[in-house]
Specification:
Blueprint (H helix, E strand, L loop, with lengths): L19 H11 L5 E2 L14 H10 L13 H13 L10 E5 H13 L5 E6 L4 H8 L3 E8 L5 E2 L1 H6 L5 E7 L11 H14 L2 E5 L23 E7 L11 E8 L5 H13 L5 H12 L4 H5 L4 H14 L4 E2 L8 E2 L2 E2 L1 H4 L4 H12 L1 E2 L1 E2 L11 E4 L4 H16 L4
Parallel strand pairs: 1-13, 3-4, 3-6, 6-7, 7-8
Antiparallel strand pairs: 2-9, 4-5, 8-9, 10-12, 11-15, 14-15
Bound molecules: pyridoxal-5'-phosphate.
Length: 404
């Protein structure tokens, strides 16, 4: 009998956040080891709870959520996203411009399927949240990575972006605030990206899922609020700011210049109908979440749990000999740099594997985020400070003796 092979469409696709090192961690857990998992940005297992009113609203509406809804999503939820657009100063967004999905993830895949023909190019940051690269390759596109510059607070290198544009480039992805670096982009930089998009007729795809997880009084600007003559797709959802990642509730907003996009919009509408609709019970969470008390602020302000954890993790990591870390301004991660000469690191997956075996701790190697060098890793800043303190002490101990 012939062996069953995955389709060749997947040959180029990878998603290493949940890759072989995680498989090994699972195996070790089955053997009875306790593994400290600093690998996934999932707030719930770290004791973060969703606002009670969101849970109550979903429970209350469960009996009304038995059927499919309109494929773009419930009117009430999309209306709430529309109001959010007003708060974010994204103009001229109607109900029809809003698509709800099973998390931002589904909508990223959908947008890439709709945008890219075989061989079309899309500019994606390095490092990136790797679903963007995976989804663009799955769609037959070519992920062209532009460098974000660690020396400049991890801002996108605009010259690198410009140098990588060809006649095949269709769009540019921005992740702001960024996963994995925690960078937050100023308005002046966003305007320069818009200028490039304008000049080359590119769609801007803005992943803003961490827009409310900001430290040190930082302010987030939605890039779509800064122009109306190019096409923007803005992605956001409830997974992080409202701590309900398991609900799978996200949205995509189309804004800006839609005049030349009728065919593209038809494609999106068709893809949206093909999956019938997103999970209906969790769509009921959106109105309450966006309209309710923004409890995420209590977590990121001084004295808030997320801020304390970010502060401690950053300081401890940055103090490890051979490690340096740009202080994150937003999101839930740290992306420290390793002195590869000092530790003789040539393979960062092996580094993550060795750390797992020795310290029973799971981090993600930088190359899983399409970072070109084996000199970074990512940890989440979600654990309580005492757990983080223990974890980073263990990383320091491990590195004090590590040579690859
Ligand atoms: N975009 C970024 C930058 C993320 O970090 C994540 C999840 O970690 C997602 C999208 C996926 O979010 P969702 O849970 O809405 O699918």
């Amino acid at each position: 009998m012939q062996t069953l092979k995955k389709s060749t469409k997947l040959n180029n696709v990878c998603y290493d956040i949940r890759g072989p090192v995680l498989d090994e961690a699972k195996r070790m857990e089955e053997e009875g080891h306790r593994i400290l998992k600093l690998n996934i940005g999932n707030p719930a297992p770290f004791g973060f709870e969703a606002p009670e009113e969101i849970l109550q609203d979903v429970l209350h509406n469960l009996p009304n959520a038995q059927g499919y809804c309109e494929s773009k999503g419930l009117y009430s939820a999309r209306k709430a996203v529309m109001q959010e657009c007003q708060r974010k100063k994204i103009d001229h967004v109607s109900i029809e411009d809003i698509y709800l999905g099973n998390g931002v993830s589904e909508l990223i895949v959908m947008a890439m399927q709709c945008l890219l023909n075989d061989g079309d190019e899309i500019l994606i940051p390095a490092p990136d949240y790797p679903l963007w690269t995976a989804a663009s390759r799955l769609a037959g596109g070519k992920a062209v990575h532009y460098i974000c510059d660690e020396q400049s607070d991890w801002y996108p290198d605009l010259n690198d972006i410009r140098s990588k544009i060809t006649s095949n480039t269709r769009g540019i992805v921005l992740i702001n605030p960024n996963n994995p670096t925690g960078a937050l982009y100023p308005e002046s930089l966003l305007k320069e990206v818009i200028e490039i998009a304008r000049e080359h007729n590119l769609v801007v795809l803005a992943d803003e899922i961490y827009d409310k997880i900001l430290y040190d009084d930082a302010k987030h600007t939605s890039i779509a609020s800064l122009a109306d003559d190019i096409l923007f797709l803005t992605f956001n959802g409830l997974s992080k700011s409202y701590r309900v990642a398991g609900f799978r509730s996200g949205w995509m907003i189309m804004s800006g210049n839609k005049h030349n996009a009728t065919d593209f919009i038809e494609g999106l509408n068709m893809l949206s109908s093909m999956r019938l609709c997103a999970n209906v019970p969790s769509q009921h969470a959106i109105q309450t979440a966006l309209g309710g008390y923004q409890s995420i602020n209590d977590l990121v302000l001084p004295g808030g749990r997320l801020k304390d954890q970010r502060d401690l993790a950053w300081e401890m990591l940055d103090n490890i000999p051979g490690v340096s870390c740009v202080k994150p301004k937003g999101a839930l991660y740290l992306f420290p740099k390793l002195d590869v000469k000092r530790f003789n690191i040539y393979d960062d997956e092996k580094f993550a594997y060795d750390l797992l075996k020795q310290e029973k701790m799971l981090v993600v190697q930088g190359t899983a985020f399409n970072w070109p060098e084996p000199d970074h890793f990512r940890i989440v800043s979600l654990p309580y400070v005492d757990q983080l303190e223990d974890a980073i002490t263990r990383i320091a101990r491990f590195l004090s003796k590590y040579k690859q």
